[in-house]
Each structure stands twice: as C-alpha cells, then as structure tokens.
Design goal:
The complex is a heterotrimer of chains A (433), B (210) and C (779). With 433 residues, chain A is an alpha/beta fold. Chain A is built from 16 helices and ten strands. Chain A has three domains: 210 residues, Rossmann fold, CATH 3.40.50; 83 residues, Ubiquitin-like (UB roll) (Roll), CATH 3.10.20; 98 residues, de novo design (two linked rop proteins) (Up-down Bundle), CATH 1.20.1440. Chain B contains eight helices and four strands, in the order H-H-H-H-E-H-E-E-E-H-H-H. Chain B has a four-stranded mixed β-sheet. The relative contact order of chain B is 0.12. The chains are: A alpha/beta (433), B alpha+beta (210), C alpha/beta (779).
Chain lengths: 433, 210, 779
C-alpha cells in the first residue's frame, strides 16, 4: 500500500502557513540560501538529475526545460509561472497558493537564478481573488525580507517578481497563449518554432513552468536527489498532488508518490459513496480519455496511464458513479471546450460548435447509430488537425465515452431522451438539500 | 468625464510593473472595471491613449476574456459552476433554483442592481463541489438552499462570508481592484486551507486512515 | 574593382534545398515554405490564411499535408504554410496522401458549416477562393444539420469598406495586413471561439490609407467595397493591366471595365515596386472619368463670351490662328503621360519656337529648376535601395500622404529591423509616428550618412530657399543615395521629356549647342530656341504684363500654383487641353477635349525613372491623347511635329534616347535669412492623400475616409492664444483667412501647420500663399 507523502501540503493545517513567518518557521527559504551558493548551472543539473517532470500536465522534464535557455547570449531571460489552473477537475495549484504561496516564491527565486532571469512573472487566473491576495501579500513580504529585489541574500542577484491576473480564458493555460496574453495581446497560441526557450516573452528566452513544478524545487534542493527519487517510479520520480473529486465519500488533495493507483487512493479516501459503484473517471482532467472500473490498478504515473490509453495530465481524478449519465457529462465538457475555444483555427472553432449541437441532439435521444459514426468522423477530422491541443482535449471525452459507453448513447435514442435521474447524481441525495 | 489624476497615477504605476507597457492592458482593464463597473468607452479610450494603442487593439483584448464585461455586474456577482463535475454533483440544480428565485437568467442582473448571475466554468475547487463564486470568492459545498440564503443575505446588505476568503465579502468592484494589483490588506483573513485540501495530510497524519 | 564586381562581392550566397513533393523534385532557396515550393511545381495546396506577403499564421488549417523528414514521418499532418523546406523532406499533398486529402476535406467542411449560402448575392462570387477550393477540396454535400451562427450584416467599418461577419472565415488576412504591412491596426479580431469576428472600435472607423487592400486579399466576400457592392459579376468585366495616374509611386494596376466604364481597380503584382498593394486613392479615385463635367466636344468662346461646341477642324483652326507667330508659353501640368509630355515639349519648341514650357503646376523655384535639370535626371535610386538602406532621410516629403507605396516600403524595414528614419517635418504626422521618425530642424542634424543611406526630397523642398543646394552638398560629401519623389504621376516623365524651360527631351540642356543639334536633327528642323525659357510663375507673370500673348495649358488647377494665377492669364489667348470643365476652361478661348488615362495608351515613369506602359483600355473611345491633338494643331500651324499616335511618339522617344553629354552646372542658392516673426507664425502645409484634389471628385465613399482638417500648433502657442485642443482658431494673412479646429502637438512655437487642400483648409485660395507668415487668434 503506497504511503502518502505530504511535502508541499505538509504544513497547510497551520493557521499561518501562508505567512512568511509561518513558512520560515517550518524551514522555508533555506533552499534559496543553499541554491545561491551553487553555480546556476549546477542548480539546473540538480533539477535535471532529480527527474522532476512538469506538473502542468505534459510531464516534460523541468531541468531539461531550464537547460534549453541559451546562456551567455546577453539577452533578458524570463521565468513565467503558469498559475492559470483551469482544466476541469484540476484543483491543486489554487489550494497550494492559498495555503503556502511562499514555497512558490522560493522556487521562483531558485529557478530564475538558475536560468539567469532577473524578472519573473506569475500568471494567475483572475477568478480567484483570495488566492491573488495571498500571493500578492507574500510577494510584498518577500521583498521586505530582502528575498526579492536587489542583491538577494547579499549574493548580488537581482530578481523582480510581477503577479499578473488573468481574466477568464482557459486557453491562456497553453504556454504560448499565456505568453501572448502576458504581453497584452489576445490569448491565442503562437506558432512553434520558435520555442519559448529561444523566443518567449517579449521574444526573449523564457521558461514557462507550472506552479507545482516550481513549488517542488525547494524540497529537492533541501533534501537532495536521492530523497526525491525514493518516491515515484522509474521514469516518473517524486511526489505530487492528486486531486480527488466527485462521487467519493471524501474528496480532497492527496499528496503521494507518482505511481499510486486509484484503488489505493480510494481506499485511503473512504471509497465511492455508500451504495454506489465507480462508473467512469478521468486520470488527468477532462482532456484526458476516460477510464472505467477496469483501470483501478493502473499506476498513476506518466508511463502507466499512457500505456493504458490516456494521459496523467494534472492528476485531476474526477470520479463518477453509476447515477451519472456519460452523455450528459460529455456534452457539458464539450460545451466547455466550445466556450473556451480561442477561435484561431477552423477545426476547433467550428468543430466544437458542431460537436455541441450533435451531442445536444444525442442527449435528447434524437439521431441514429449513423450519427455516432459521424460524430467519431468529425472527431477524427479535428484531432491532430488543430493549431493547439485544446481541440485534442475536446474530442477526448467523446471518443473515449463512445469506446466504453457506446450503448449508453444508443439507450438515449431508444429511450427518446436521457434515461438517468439527474437528482440521483447530486450530492444532495446523500446529504439532503 | 475623464479619470481623475489620482486614478491616472495609479494606472501609470500599474504600467511600471512590466518591462513593456502593453502587458499592463489586463490589469488596467480590471482597474477600469473597479471604477466603472464594466469596460466603458472612457476606459477603452484612456487605455489606448496611455499604452499608445489603437482603440481596436484594446477592444480586441477586452472582448476576448470572460471576466471583462460590456455591461455592469451586480454588486454581488454570483457564478454557479456548471462544468461537468459540479453540474453533476448539483450545480445544475443550484442554477435552476437560483434563476427561479431571482427571476433572472444567465448574464442578467436583478432590477435593484444587487445580484447578477453567470454560469461559470471550472474554478479549480472540484473537491468542494458544488462550487459557487461570488465576486470571485469561494463558496464551497453549496446547495440550492444555501445559495438562496446567500443571495438573500447579499440583497439585504449583509452577505454571508466566503468559505475560503476574507471575513466579509467585498463588492465586485472592490475585488476587481484587487485583481488590478492593488492590495486591500485582507490576505491574512480566512483559513489557510479548507478541510478537503487538508484531507490527504490528515489521513497521512492518522497513519493512513481517515 | 568595377561596380559590377563590387556588387557581386556583396551578394550573399543563397543555400538551395531540394525536396520531393508528390513524387516530384523541386529545388528552392532555403527558407521557402512548403506551400510556396509546391506552387513552383504547379501544385496548389488549398489555403485561406496563407499569403506570400504576410507572416505565416497557420490558422485556417486548410493547407494540411503529410511530411516526412529523414525517413521520420510527422505523426499528424502539418500546415504547409508554416513549414520551411528542409533537406531529405518528402511531402505528400492531397494529391498523393489520403490522410492529407481527408484532413483538407474535413477542414473545408468545418469552414462551410457557419458560412452563409450567400453566393447568389455575394460580390465575391465567381472570383472566390472559398467557392473554388470548396469545389476542388470539399465534400459534395455538407453533413451539417445544425444552426449557423448569424450576425447583423453588412456593417460599415468605414465609408468605403463593408464587413459581413457571417461570411468571414477568420483567416485574419485583413487584420494581419493592417497591422503588419500598413501599421494601421484599426480592425482587429474581437470575441472568442465561434463568435470571433473582425471589428472596429465604433468611434474609430477603418480609416487607413491602405484599407482597400484588405478587400482585395479577403478570400471570401466578407470585406467588400461600398462603391462596388452589387455592381458587377467578374464575368461581366474585362481586366486590363494599367498604371495608376495619381502619384509617382508607379503602382501596377488592374482595371476592370464593363462596356467602356471602369467599375473597379485592383492593385497589380509588381514585387519591385508595389508588391501587391496600392493605396485607397489609387484604388477608388476614378469616378472623375465619368463625371458630368467631362468635355466631349471641342469648344470655342464666341463673341458673346460663351463657350460653344464646335467641330475639330474649326477648333483646331481657331486655336492655330490664335497661336501662330504669337509669343506663347506652355503649361503642361503634372499628370501627363510620357508621350503626351513629349508632345508638349516638341510642340513648344517646333510649333511655338520657345523654351517657355513647364510641367510644374504647384509652388516651385529657380533653384528647383536647376536641381531638376542638373541632378534629378541622373539619380539611380530605387525601391531596392530603401530595402537595404542604413537610414532614410525625408526632406520636404511626407511619404504616407505623397507616395503611399514608398511609405509601405520604408515601414517594412522599420518594422523588420528598426531602420532609422529622419524627417524635417514640423511635427510628427501619423506616418512619421509609424516610422518612428526622428524630427530634425535642419540638415546639420543629419549624421552618419553612408553610401547606403537614402535621402528623399519631395517637391516641397522648393519652398525653402537654399534647401536643394544644401542637400546637393550633403549628397556629394557622403555619397548617399538621393531620390526625388514628386506628388504627381506625370512629373518624372515630364522632366525626362523636357517639359521644363532648361531641358530638351532626354536631359539635353537647351543652352548646349551640341544638344540642340542632336534634337534638331532628330526633329528635322533647322534650329531650336537657344536660351533658357520661363518657368510656370514667369510664364504667368509674362502673360499678365503682355510679354507673352498666348498660352497652351494641359491639366492645371490655377489654385495649385497661386491665388493670382488665373487672373494673370485672363487677357491672353488660352488654348485648354482638358478632360473636364475647370477653372481654366471657364476662361479659355479654345477647349480641346483630351483622353483620360484609360482612353489612350501611354506610359508613366515612376520616381525611380522606371516606365510602366499601358494599353488603351476602351477600344472604341473617341478621345484623343494630348500628343495627337498637339500634332494636329502643329500641322495646322504649318510647323508639323509628326506625332500622330502614341506609339509613334514612343518610338521617337526611344530613338532619341538619353543625353550623355556634359550636363549644366547646378546653380546653388543661398538660404533665406529667417525674418523676425513677432506675434506671427510661419505657415507650413502639405497636401493630404485624400483631399479636394480634382481626380478624387465624385467618389463620396472615398472622401468619407479623408482625414479631417485641423491646425497643428504647439502647446505653448495654444496657451498663448488661449485655445484648447479641438477649439476653433482663425488663421489670416493679408489676403484672407480660414478657421480650423486646433490640434496640439510637439512642434516649434513659431510654426503652424494646416492641410494644403482639404475641406475648410484651402491654403492658396484662402491665404494666398503656401509660404509666409500668418496671424493666429482664437476664433
């Protein structure tokens, strides 16, 4: 039985965990001191060697990303933290920032130092005002404590940190769209090449990392590579936050080594709600193909989930029991993608418009089996043909739900509408209105 | 009516946070909303002038993002998450009951200007579903009844506080000012983390049991 | 080392790459996009957002192809408009890859689901890339059974451009062009997702001088011209290559004609001049061709003082009688073709025996005459020199207003590599701001001129005494490239044709005996007048005091020259060759109607000196070119010039060729001493691109986008006068006054700038001069 490994969340239960005093009391800002005594390239090497992979969904090795920045080029470098957490089901970065914004700041200082950046940004989604308050106050306090600004720790290293609020656009979680948004343009993805490491923010070498990735850095610096690699699997090292939500008895954040299974997490969390069974779930948010009760023992690391036909993504475990209509769930996700499509490319912009209309009809029991084939064909014309991966995420629920629950679609047609009782899937049924 | 010189000074200070001035367009739009309640003509024209952009370049940005409004929000802007997980868990029921209760639909405001509602997308609090945001503060674990109580209390001038936020709910405009980067000093209020966020930690401390 | 050797040394070796597309090999320069390489093989990959002159977008996804490099295939089809060729690349388009074919078909199906079935009423029908590519690439039937998104349509985004948002395929060519090429981001994409749409900020319509290009490059009928809406189908139209008659940029053009009438004009494709762009004036200002004031038959002023229609023989006889053996001058105007200018030039010398001929219908000076004769014809500066310039200096020249295509050329380098630009303008116009031009108050501020620098002087440099001389010295010292860019299309050609008091055709000085012999022999005359002739202002003065008896006038507006020009020729015998009734025809003794540009063949020389030849577009036009009429007149006068047709004239010009003898020395002038101003201000002005110019008449939609006239003064001056931005001021001279709203900008306190010929601001008519001091008070 895999043991939980609270590292990032270790002190969230302390009332002042989000203050600089609270953070320092539990060892905060020690890693910065240590890192500033190292050569920047040594810091990069350490993170490379640790095997830390980006926690924003793609799982790209963080140290390698840092290493792509050309050094000695006499250009400004930037570190940009992607705090635009908006993938349906994903809810780990917001509580982290609310409970301990300083660990992110410490990670930012170390990461910026490593890549020789003197200005870093946090792009925080705008719909979380209290999180914004916490991060902003933490930044101000860090400046006051001499941890940001000029000559940090007396080591001659300068770093400005700017907090930037988004304004409601899921696409801005895509790194190049984030950069365009941060530059003051519409948040639409950019052509690559050039890659951000060469021409990112303001066309300068830039690293874009997820909150959790950067927040994991201080612990690695403090405790070392061996400690980090004791957790996780061969290719997916370390600890991470798994977000459990939905028809479980106890939804919440579970910090565990990569490779834990859903069965293990459910056991720790007290299982599916009484009298119900797991029907389908997402390993990494709505953009990752669905899993069913057949996948309870898949190790939840990048390789394991990929081998099982999905993606680990952001470890957003949305759990749905048998009271849930798959078609309804897929329709609602499709409406999300349509709403969030930036509009730049044809297949996503027009495709999501069409998919939603088709799914509406299918949910209402209209259409025939031929429409299911048409739906899949449209998905085939969208996936891999769009400008960015939003469209790929949009078709994932449709394709995977047809793979596992094709008959449910047909049931709607036979039934002339949805055969499920919506109220039964609410939590009010269990706790009362 | 132009913005006051004090307001323009604040706008300049916002611009100075960035290496390139155009980056300031997003916080400036939040700031305009904080003053005018939505993105007004004078907001667009002023931002265009101080950032040396065409007005069309400003509207291109302001019309792209959901939070920038072309009409005033209510004093209390209620967002009901209707993305799949929250919807299934009860968000759809909450939304229906709320629209019935207030007599307004998506993107509309009550006649007294107090409450506006919006169907919102995932707000990164799925372990607290069904989630409602008021002026973008967290109201976790809502039910149709609790949301009715919430909007009634707001209309009465004494809104129930957020579950994970400041002790007193502030107005939509006041919160917009925060998003523009103007610290209102309330970061110390509220819990560090809600119980769902602490679940794994507590189980771990209990030796693997809840 | 010879210049040729030097040129070869500086050329960079271009790496060539060979790729295989659909089984065929093609070799192209490194950096070529796959979609372009395919075109070289004649393979058309369908596309919408791609445009060879715009940065790749990869947005529409229509151009998806299968690509393999070094044996490794891309897992998904790629947008060929974003991928440059590489060695060992194998591309399979829709012709040889079923994956690419299905992908393209899928994209086309998606594009059509929200596209309205407007073809029957859409201007683009018949020449529409969406129609064409839907046929070549799409499914025969759409599977969409849902609801399309709709918008109110069309909406007017300027008085001359209409937007239909339903038809728009969001290729963003228009917004990218406006931002990248023109620097006028007045249209942008707004909203998100399927509701994304092109839009303006309502208070700031799409008033860019280049807006018409977006109509031309829009691949669907989303952007259409107001003046052309619902007027024609492409198959009604006959298209001809033509040349623009407005400015001296030299744009290639395509004119579309139906039953003898121009219905629209498009920019032609000439990479070395205008690429594929033109300006709105060139595109839309052609209504003058069919206005009611067109003169259709010759007219003679009778004893009753009125003009009466008459026959050609009568009119020619009457004109000849009034000119033969009289002392006459010739005012050519700035809009003749090369052939017509040559006709005036030969007519003056052979039929009138005079060198009193001038094409400048605008403020000018003797210093300018000397500059044009000595320097301007020997300049070899081209558009390419701007491309590689290390800095550009603009003197008496506002590119956006006076030569829009030159502006685009400079702006291209400014955007690409921050090409430094200097300007002697009194304030930063919109064009100057876009170029990031540094304003200089005098030539001493110009530094670091090299042989790669480009100095451009405009016609307005003539208004500052000593300026041409200073520039001449500057160029000689530095070896920088010099260009003379006048406002009007006919001026470079008229200069080359010798329609100026100091030169015969081909740059031959009238005072050089060898040059005269050369020409006399070619013209089969015994001799030619030996002394330098009179300039425009001198001709008018002479007419006024009866030192000249008669004048032959081409397309000239006296108010472009001075406020007294018209009265000066009132008591003379006036022969007017005009296309429309004008201030001149109103006082002329004979009016001989001439052909407008599409009614004759001919050529223009652009400011580079490069010719653009065009054929007669309207086959059965009865209009005759100026040169033909002058030839008839010369015959009648007994001094034939033998130029009965345009082609004969062109042949004669070619055989005469350019003079390679010793040119005349450039007579330098000394700068004027600045007089003490006191309370008065120095007036500055230039003509805006869209203003009250005669050739812009009759096109209200174009006029609707003209920049509004305002007077520019400094903040200090505004405070002194007691006016705020937008308030009215009165500007007066001894001769008159005008009232304009104020615009405050950074400029010298002793200057005031107004548009020279716009609504509410006709400087010569209202104030009597372009150069002088004015009194300015709050209105």
């Amino acid at each position: 039985m895999t043991k939980l490994t609270p590292v990032l969340s270790a002190h969230w239960d302390e009332k002042d965990s989000f203050t600089i005093e609270g953070y320092k009391r539990v060892g905060g800002y020690k890693a910065v001191t240590k890192a500033l005594t190292m050569e920047p390239d040594a810091v990069i090497q350490m993170i490379k060697d640790s095997g830390l992979r980006g926690r924003g969904g793609a799982g790209f090795p963080t140290g390698s990303k840092w290493g792509f920045i050309p050094q000695g080029d006499n250009k400004e470098h930037y570190l940009v933290v992607n705090a635009d957490e908006s993938e349906p089901g994903t809810c780990k970065d917001m509580p982290l920032l609310m409970a301990n914004p300083h660990v992110l700041i410490e990670g930012i200082i170390i990461g910026s130092y490593a890549i020789r950046a003197n200005h870093a940004f946090i792009y925080l989604r705008g719909e979380v005002v209290h999180v914004f308050r916490r991060v902003q106050q933490a930044i101000e306090d860090a400046y006051k404590a001499g941890l940001l600004g000029k000559n940090i720790g007396g080591k001659g290293y300068d770093l400005e940190l700017t907090l930037h609020a988004g304004a409601g656009a899921y696409i801005c979680g895509e790194e190049t769209a984030l950069l365009d948004s941060l530059e003051g343009f519409r948040g639409q993805p950019r052509l690559r090449p050039p890659f951000p490491a060469i021409a990112g923010l303001y066309a300068k070498p830039t690293v874009v990392n997820n909150v959790e990735s950067i927040a994991s850095v201080p612990a690695i610096i403090n405790n070392g590579i061996e400690w980090f690699q004791e957790m996780g699997t061969e290719k997916s090292k370390g600890f991470t936050l798994y977000s459990l939500s939905g028809h479980v008895n106890n939804p919440g954040q579970f910090e565990a080594p990569l490779g834990i299974t859903l069965r293990e997490i459910l056991e720790l969390a007290g299982g599916i709600r009484e009298g119900h069974q797991l029907k389908f779930w997402t390993p990494g948010g709505s953009s990752t193909p669905l899993f069913t009760d057949q996948h309870l023992d898949i190790p939840l690391d990048y390789e394991g989930v990929s081998a099982a036909g999905s993606m680990l993504g952001t470890k957003a475990l949305q759990i749905f029991d048998e009271t849930t209509c798959v078609v309804r769930a897929v329709l609602r996700w499709s409406e999300f993608y349509k709403h969030e499509s930036c509009g730049k490319c044809t297949p996503c912009r027009e495709g999501t418009w069409w998919l939603v209309q088709m799914l509406h009809d299918l949910e209402a029991g209209k259409g025939t089996e031929a429409d299911l084939a048409k739906l899949l064909d449209l998905c085939d014309n969208i996936a891999g043909r769009s400008f960015c991966a939003l469209a790929d995420g949009a078709v994932a629920p449709i394709i995977s739900s047809l793979k596992y629950f094709r008959d449910e679609y047909l049931e709607h047609q036979r039934n002339g509408g949805c055969p499920f009782d919506r109220v039964a899937s609410t939590i009010f049924k269990t706790v009362g209105v | 009516m132009k913005f006051t010189s004090e307001q323009l000074k604040i706008m300049d200070s916002i611009i100075s946070r960035y290496p390139r001035s155009r980056s300031a367009i997003m916080p400036l739009l939040h700031y305009v909303q904080a003053i005018d309640g939505y993105v007004t003509e004078r907001g667009i024209e002023t931002i265009a002038e101080i950032l040396n952009l065409a007005t069309a370049e400003v509207t291109a940005v302001s019309s792209f993002y959901t939070q920038y409004r072309s009409e005033p929000a209510g004093e209390y802007h209620v967002g009901v998450c209707i993305n799949t997980l929250c919807a299934v868990m009860g968000g759809d029921e909450i939304y229906e009951s709320l629209t019935d209760h207030l007599g307004i639909e998506n993107h509309e405001t009550t006649k007294d200007g107090k409450v506006s509602i919006e169907r919102i997308e995932c707000n990164a609090a799925c372990d607290y579903a069904p989630v409602v945001m008021v002026n973008w503060e967290f109201y976790d674990n809502q039910t149709p009844q609790s949301v009715k109580d919430l909007v009634d209390s707001a209309r009465a001038g004494n809104p129930r506080p957020p579950t994970r936020g400041p002790s007193k709910l502030r107005t939509w405009k006041e919160n917009s000012e925060v998003l523009a980067g103007l610290n209102d000093g309330l970061a110390h209020e509220g819990v560090s983390a809600g119980s769902a966020s602490l679940l794994g930690l507590q189980i771990s401390k209990n030796g693997g049991r809840q | 080392m010879t210049p040729e050797q030097a040129l070869l040394e500086t050329e960079v070796a271009i790496e060539m790459i060979t790729v295989v597309i659909d089984g065929f090999e093609v070799t192209v320069p490194k950096g070529t996009l796959v979609i372009r390489a395919a075109e070289k093989l004649g393979i058309q990959i369908p596309r919408f957002c791609d445009h060879p002159l715009l940065k790749p977008a990869g947005a529409c996804r229509q151009c998806l192809v299968d690509i393999e490099i070094n044996g490794r295939a891309f897992p998904k089809p790629q947008a060929s408009c974003t991928i440059p060729v590489e060695n060992n690349m194998i591309v399979k388009t829709q012709l040889t890859s079923t994956v690419a074919e299905k992908a393209q078909e899928g994209i086309m199906e998606f594009l059509l689901i929200n596209h309205p079935l407007d073809c029957a009423v859409c201007d683009k029908g018949g020449e529409c890339p969406l129609q064409n590519q839907a046929m070549s690439t799409g499914r025969p039937e759409s599977r969409f059974e849902g609801v399309k998104r709709t918008f109110e349509k069309p909406i007017s985004i300027s008085s001359q451009v209409l937007l239909d948002r339903e038809r728009c395929v969001l290729c963003a060519r228009c917004t990218r062009f406006s931002e990248e090429i023109a620097g006028d981001p007045f249209i942008t994409l707004n909203e998100r997702g399927a509701l994304q749409q092109v839009g303006i900020y309502e208070k700031d319509p799409f008033e860019s001088y280049y807006s018409g290009n977006t109509v031309q490059i829009c691949p669907v009928g989303a952007l259409t011209g107001t003046s052309y809406r619902f007027r024609a189908r492409p198959f009604d139209l006959v298209s001809i290559d033509s040349a623009c008659e407005h400015c001296a940029s030299g744009c290639a053009m395509r004119t579309d004609i139906r039953r003898g009438k121009t219905l629209r004009r498009l920019a032609g494709d000439d990479p070395s001049v205008n690429e594929e762009w033109n300006c709105d004036k060139g595109r839309w200002a052609f209504k003058y061709l069919t206005n009611r004031e067109r003169v259709t038959t010759p007219m003679i002023r009778g004893a009753d003082g009125e003009l009466h229609e008459t026959s050609w023989p009568e009119a020619i006889a009457f004109a000849a009688a009034g000119l033969k053996d009289k002392r006459a001058g010739v005012l050519v105007g700035g809009r003749t073709t090369v052939e017509d200018a040559y006709g005036y030039s030969k007519f003056a010398r052979v039929a009138l025996g005079t060198n009193d001929i001038d094409f400048r219908a605008r403020p000018h000076s003797d210093e300018e005459t000397s500059f044009l004769s000595r320097v301007a014809l020997n300049l070899k500066t081209t558009y390419k020199d701007i491309d590689v310039a290390d800095q550009v200096v603009l003197l008496g020249f506002e590119p956006e207003e006076e030569s829009p295509i030159v502006f685009l050329r400079i702006y291209k380098q400014v955007s690409k590599r921050a090409l430094p630009v200097l300007s002697d303008a009194p304030f930063a116009s919109r064009g100057s701001e876009k170029l990031g031009a540094v304003l200089i108050s005098d030539l001493s501020k110009i530094a670091n001129l090299t042989t790669k620098s480009v100095v451009i002087v405009g016609e307005r440099l003539a208004e500052t005494r000593g300026a041409f001389s200073s520039v001449y010295e500057l160029i000689n010292k530095s070896g920088a490239k010099l260009a003379w860019i006048p406002r009007r299309s006919g001026e470079p050609g008229a200069l080359a044709a010798g329609a100026i008091p100091t030169l015969l055709p081909g740059g031959r000085p009238v005072t050089d005996p060898a040059a005269r012999v050369d020409v006399a022999a070619a013209w089969s005359v015994e001799s030619l007048p030996t002394s330098q002739g009179r300039s425009t202002s001198e001709i008018l003065l002479a007419l006024n005091v009866k030192n000249l008896d008669a004048v032959v006038i081409g397309g000239v507006d006296p108010l472009d020259i001075s406020s007294t020009a018209l009265t000066q020729l009132l008591n003379s015998f006036v022969v007017s060759l005009e296309i429309s009734h004008s201030a001149i025809t109103a006082v002329a003794d004979v009016v001989l109607p001439v052909a407008a540009v599409i009614e004759k063949s001919g050529s223009y020389l652009d400011w580079q000196g490069s010719p653009r030849v065009f054929e007669k577009a309207i086959a059965d036009s009865l209009s005759r070119s100026d040169v033909r009429i002058l030839s008839m007149l010369a015959d009648e006068m007994g001094s034939p010039i033998n130029l009965p047709t345009v082609s004969a004239t062109a042949r004669e010009i070619a055989s005469l060729g350019k003079w390679d003898g010793t040119p005349v020395a450039f007579e330098k002038s000394v700068s004027e001493k600045i007089t003490e101003l006191g309370e008065k201000l120095n007036l500055k002005s230039w003509r805006l691109l869209l203003d009250l110019g005669t050739l812009q008449g009759g096109e209200a939609n174009l006029a609707g986008t003209a920049r509004k006239a305002s007077a520019h003064i400094s903040k200090a001056r505004a405070e002194k006068i007691g006016v705020k931005s937008g308030e009215l001021i009165s500007i007066s001279s001894e001769l008159g006054s005008l009232e304009l709203p104020v615009e405050i900008c950074e400029m010298a306190d002793d200057l005031i700038w107004v548009p020279r010929n716009s609504i509410g601001s006709q400087v010569i008519a209202n104030l009597g001069f372009v150069n002088g001091q004015v009194k300015v008070i709050k209105a």
